[in-house]
Amino acid sequence: MVKEQGVKSIDLTMAFFRAGMLGFGGGPAVIPIMQRDVVDRYGWLTDEEYGDTIALSNTMPGPIATKLAGYIGYRVAGLRGCLIALAASIIPTVVLMILLLGILQNYKDVPWVANMSNAVVPVVAVMLGVLTWNFIQQSEKALGWSKAILLIVVSVILLEVLGIHPAFLIAGLILLVLVPFIKRTVKRT
Amino acid sequence: MIYWQIFLAFFIPGILGYGGGPASIPLVEKEVVDRYGWMDTQEFSEVLALGNSLPGPIATKMAGYVGYAEGGVLGAVVGLFGAVAPSLILMIALMAILFKYKDSREVKNISKVVKPVIAVLIGVMTLDFILTSEASLGGIQTAILMVASYLMLEKWKLHPALVIGLALLYGAVTGIFIA
Question: Do A59 and B92 touch (CB under 8 A)?
Fold first, then answer.
């Protein structure tokens, strides 16, 4: 699977640094930016391989952009590539985040600075509200209204009324979906 | 053991967040705010707001920042490891198998059945944020800011960083005015 082809560390660093720093709007925004480097500029993967990788990483949990960076880095340059790609895409923005929030924390007792952080909360609420609606639409597209609404109602009851940790609900659903698949695979082998 | 807690706080959302980084935000909030009490909703929303206005993946920015705030540089490394490593290792290890079954109905269904749950989690978080804002700014300002930012983000498609910047400016100006 790994094709060591003398991919330069500096190329890896630049490709994934760009993907991290230009991807405004989180992981999904990174996908086309990464494609420009990985496929068009450096030719590490073909268009089709890149598409397959994205489809696959969508079937796995966890943040998309880092899965892509780590996996592509690993594929073109082994463990070295994996670590370089991850570091280049993650570290710059994390450092920026720590610095900016550190500054904000220092001036927290100044009333007008405190009010600045108050004013941001409703904006984030709107962003999250839009995200909620996106996930509802995706649920409808994937499952149809009746199943989607049923799952939503069941989730509200289990999570909010009974106070069950979401980990149990999600793990339970995954198991439920996979049972016929596991049965079939075991039978075949 | 703080490092173990930091690891768990980001490992659980990382391994359950089907639908990428945004899907794991409410799961992170559950651990960071509800379980460990490292931040309140207000502080969490500041981190989220800044995370949304900076480039790069959101889940890892949160893991790095919260890890750093609770456990210094090592904490940041542990948080990032928890968020990134498990699903990445799984992906690299299972690549061959996954390629074989990537068109299988069940494997595709996993992310489908999890979506409604994520919708509920983010929906509840939205409500939390609205209530928090109502408590600090009052209902009228909250409503004005929400309508204005909805129009800017969704109707006029302004950049999230710009909208957050305007909200900060609004907060500063009204803050000085009140003082």
Answer: no
Spans of all domains in chain A: 9-107, 111-187
E strand or H helix at B166: helix B160-178
pLDDT digits (tens, 9 = 90+) for B20-73: 777 888 999 999 999 999 999 988 988 988 887 787 788 899 999 999 999 999
- Residues B55/B155/B175/B42 CA torsion (nearest 10 deg): -60
Contact yes or no for A65 and B115 at CB 8 A: no
Same domain, B39 and B120: no
- Give B102-150 pLDDT, tens digit per residue: 667 777 777 788 889 889 988 998 998 899 899 989 999 999 999 999 9
For an interface test with B, which of A33, A57, A94, A134 has the most B Cβ atoms less than 10 Å from its Cβ? A94
Question: Nearest Cα to A166, choosing from B108, B109, B19?
Answer: B19
User: Is A62–B64 a contact, with Cβ atoms under 8 angstroms apart?
Assistant: no
Q: Supply the pTM of this predicted model.
A: 0.80
Same domain, B89 and B148: no
ipTM: 0.82
**Cβ(B70)–Cβ(B43) below 8 Å:** no
Please check whether residues B83 and B117 belong to one and the same domain: no
| Separation CA A71–CA A91 (nearest Å) | 17
Q: Shortest Cα distance from A73 to chain B (angstroms)?
A: 11
Q: What sign has the CA pseudo-torsion A171, A140, A135, A163?
A: negative
